[in-house]
Design goal:
Number of helices: 14
Distance between the termini: 91 Å
GO molecular function: iduronate-2-sulfatase activity; metal ion binding
Organism: Maribacter polysiphoniae
Keywords: Calcium, Hydrolase, Metal-binding, Signal
CATH topology of the largest domain: Alkaline Phosphatase, subunit A
Family: Belongs to the sulfatase family.
Largest sheet: 8 strands, mixed
CATH class of the largest domain: Alpha Beta
Radius of gyration: 24 Å
Shape: globular
Helix content: 25-40%
Protein name: Sulfatase
CATH architecture of the largest domain: 3-Layer(aba) Sandwich
Amino acid sequence: MRIRKPIPLACIALYAVLMTGCKKPQPTQLPNILLICVDDLRPELKSFGATHISSPNIDKLARNGVSFLEHFANAPSCGPSRYTLLTGQYGPAGNDALFLRAKKTEQGDQGINPSMPEWFRTHGYTTVSVGKVSHHPGGMGGADWNDSSIIEIPKAWDKHLMPVAEWEHPRGMMHGLAHGEIRVKASDMDVYQTVEGDDTIYPDGAITSEALKQLTALSADDQKPFFLAVGIIKPHLPFGAPKRYFDLYEGVDIPPIAHPQKPEGETTWHNSNEFRNYNLWGKDPNTEKAFADEVRRHYYACVSYADAQVGKVLAALKQTGADKNTIVVLWGDHGWHLGEHAIWGKHSLFEESLHSPMIIHYPGMDRKGSKTDAIVATIDIFPTLCDLTGVQTPAFAQGTSLKGLLEKPDAVGHQAIAYKADATTIRTATHRLTLHKDGFTELYEHTATGDETKNIANNHPELVEELTNAIKAKLQ
C-alpha cells in the first residue's frame, strides 16, 4: 500500500494565501445619508424644551442623536437658506438664489462649484430628492414648477421627484390644502384648516409615500451608498393638517407670546404680508388673543403632522436595516414668528426668523441624546457630512465641520451669519448685531433675556465695530 506523505505546513500556508488573493476584495461601504428638511419649523419641539408640543418621532431621533439647540439658518427665507445648505456657501438673498446659480452654470461660468449632492454623487453616491429640498418642490422651474428643461440644481440628483397626487403640479402642492385644493388667489384660501382624514389628504402624505418607495429601492443596492433628501412642506402656510393632529392640542395650555409688541426704531420688522395675504376672516392676531391662539394651535397641528411623516421615514429606514450605516440629519430651514415682535411669518433678522432645530445621528456615535448650546449654522452641514462619511471636504465649503461638537457637545461653537437683501446679522454666544445697508446698527444682548427688544448699539461702539468687521470678513 502506498503511503501518502503529509503536505508540508508551508505549502498549506502558501495555498491559503493564494486562494485568499483570488477572492474579490469586499469594498468598504461608505455611510448612507438621509437628510430630512422641514419647512418653517421653529425649535418649538418637546425635545427642545417645549412641553406643550407633541413631536414623538423627532424626539425619538433626538434621543439617538445630538440636538443643536442654537442652530441658525443663514437666511430667513426658503430659497437662500436652502442655497447655503445645498452649496455650502453664502449666496444671493432671494428665493431665486439657486436658479441664478443654475443660469450661471448653463452659461459656462467656471466659478460655480459643485453643489453638495453633486459632490457626493461624484464620490460614488446615488442621490435622490423627494419633495421640497431646494426652493421649488421637485427642483424644477416654469409656471407650475414642473418644466424639466429648467432645473434648479443641475447635475445634483440622479432623481428629483415630486409626487403631485390630486394637487396637479408642484406649485399646487406647495400651497395646497386638503383633497387637492390649490392656491389660486391667496385671499380666497383660508390661512388654516383642519379636515377629517388620513395623512394622504394633505400634500405631505404623498411626499412621504414616495420617500418610502425610494428608501426601499436605495437600501436594496449594496454596491453604492445613497444620499436621500426628503423635504416636508408643513408647517409652511397655509396651516392645514388632518384633524387628529389638531385634536392633540385641545385643552393644552400654550405659553403666552413672548415680546408681542412691534419694535420701535429701525429694525427688520415687516407687516407679515405673506401671512396676511390669506383669508383671516377680518381678524388680527396682534389684537385678538383668541385668534392668535387659534393660529398657533393650527401651526402646532402642522408640526405634529410633519413629525408623523418624519416617523414614517425613520421607521422605514430601520425596517430596511440600512439604519445601521446611515447618517441622519433633521433640519429646519429657518424659524417662524408666531406673534413675537408682532410678526407672523419669517423674513426678519430677529432670532425667531433664524432659529431652527437641527439633529444629527450617525452609527456608532457615543453621545446619543446629548444637547449642545454651541452656536452653529446651516452652512456647516456640508463639511460635517463630508467629515462623517470620509468624503473629501471641498476647499470651497465655507462652513465648519460639526464633528467635534458631535463628539464633545459641550465644546464651543462659532458665530452665525445671516442676511436679507437690505441687512446682515451676526449671532454670537452673547449678542446679535444687525447691520443695515444704510449703516444703521442694532445690537442685542443674549446673556440675560435674549428677547431682542432693547437696541444697545450706541452703548457699545467697540463691540459694534468688532462684529461689523466679522460680518465683512465672512461675506467678502
